[in-house]
Amino acid sequence: MKHFLLLFSAFAITLSSWGDDNVAVVPGAQYVLRNVVTGSYLMKDGTTTKDEATASNWRVVTNDTVHYSDAEKLYVVYSDDAVMQLTNSGGGWKVAFTGKGNTTYVMPSTTTEKAFKFRYRFALDTRYLNVEVDAEGREKLTAAHTASRYNDWEFVPTTHPKDYRYRLMKMNRSGDNTKYSVAYLSHDVLGEEVWLSGWVAVPTVSEGGACNADHVLFSAHLTQCKNTEVPSQFDPYDGLTFSLSGNKPVMIEPDYLGYGITKDREHPYCAPDIMAEESVDLMLAVHDMLRDMHAMDCSTGAYPTYGIGYSQGGAVILACQRHVENSPKLTEAQRNAIHWVRTCAGAGPYCPLATISHYYFQDKLAMPVAAPLLVMGMVAAYPDIFGDIKAEDYFSEAFNAAGIVDKVRSTDYTIEELNEAIKKACGDTMQGLLSEEAKDVNSDLTQHLLKAMGCSDLTRDWSPKADIWFFHNTDDDVVPYLNTIAAYKGLKDRCQGECVIHNPGIGMSHIPAAVEFMARMILGNYK
Fold first, then answer.
1. Is the pTM for the entire model greater than 0.85?
2. Fewest 10 Å CB contacts: which of 49, 75, 211, 448?
3. Are residues 293 and 263 in the same domain?
4. Whole-number Å distance between alpha carbons of 253 and 238
5. Which structural domain range is residue 66 located in?
6. For residue 73, what pLDDT is reported?
7. Which residues pair with 87 in a beta bridge?
8. What is the rounded end-to-end Cα distance, in angstroms, of the chain?
9. 488 with 514, same domain?
10. 96-123: pLDDT as tens digits
11. CA separation for the pair 517, 230 (Å, rounded)
12. What integer pLDDT is reported at residue 52 of this predicted model?
């Protein structure tokens, strides 16, 4: 794994907005914290050391829990299981480094150039993380009331970075749970290393304390086109499954490549192998985070994983089960740690070829943006199949003239806004949306597309081990029901667990049925 200090420049937060010096601390990058006066380094056990090579590494994350004013930004400084704390519970001030943590101001110093102070406020009392030196030269950390050079600290790039698979981008502690936006290491469609993002919710025995969940709920979100709506940017709608559950799980949800911190990348929509690997990588990174921050050891397999997903998420979550059970990229230890026991997949395009064929046949589209998303996703996911062919080659002049492809790529528009833009440009039919060559199923252009979609089929060529519960409304107007029939027929006889179809929401269209599906999940029916 590469040295991290240069990888995070895109996420730098400039803490010098209070001063003139352009000093930046990068969330996720690793530092040692050196006291300006003593030259000592901060250790996560609450002591100091003169040896930089053995000093604890520290990272920074924003904290959304408390804001005293819009002008003051809050941060948490953490190192493995230690979170910096200055505390006062009515019995006096203490300096502590535990998994609990609290709100800390990281502010540029007014007494030393390019240094920072760590400030905490209790009622009207403000304190600073300070080093006190006695007559014999012994050092002790204190919560000083007065600002001085003894509470000035420098963020120094570490010479001994640790290989983390995750970094925290945002933290929100509220009572007995903590929610994170996280970044994690994975791979893109070319196999190159990339940082992706997602959302995690953790139930705890106390604020920021040890996790008390007994299972993991891995959720794959349905189709979303606007970046501000993906999990790491905004608590996901299915996060209610965490908030309202009587027995809260650890809940994990990826943004997907092309969203979150990779919003400028192409999204491989409906490409199961790519989406599954990237999503499962988040789960493995979160295992590390749970161990470091919440004393939860997933390595023994003691926390079974349930997967849920609807629409695009239904296909992604089924692909995740296949990846966990069969991918040679995972070790047996990782499979055992994940301990996948059941998939609840709702109305997913498990067979993209069947889906696009249905669109060709019926012509009129209930959700017009679904067709270009499929085409663009295939072109992004399989560059070896498409070569020089561009997504725009599949669309009509009217469609391209309206800049729909660029609108989708921008991630600035909602599904509803994109649907309206498509209808305005070329109507809501495949005939109006496609180029003349793409309308011909025997053309070379269309054959490339069909080949890619054949590579994205989840309905065959594997033997599931865990339960699969399919949920699909027979009247679905966006994802044809034949997807679930194909998946059920293709997998039932080979599935070692329970493979069943539930038909909830009869008579409902795709989106109302999604609400019905998630209501079931919120009530814990995935178990």
1. yes
2. 49
3. yes
4. 9
5. 9-157
6. 56
7. 94
8. 37
9. yes
10. 776 555 556 788 888 898 898 988 877 7
11. 19
12. 95
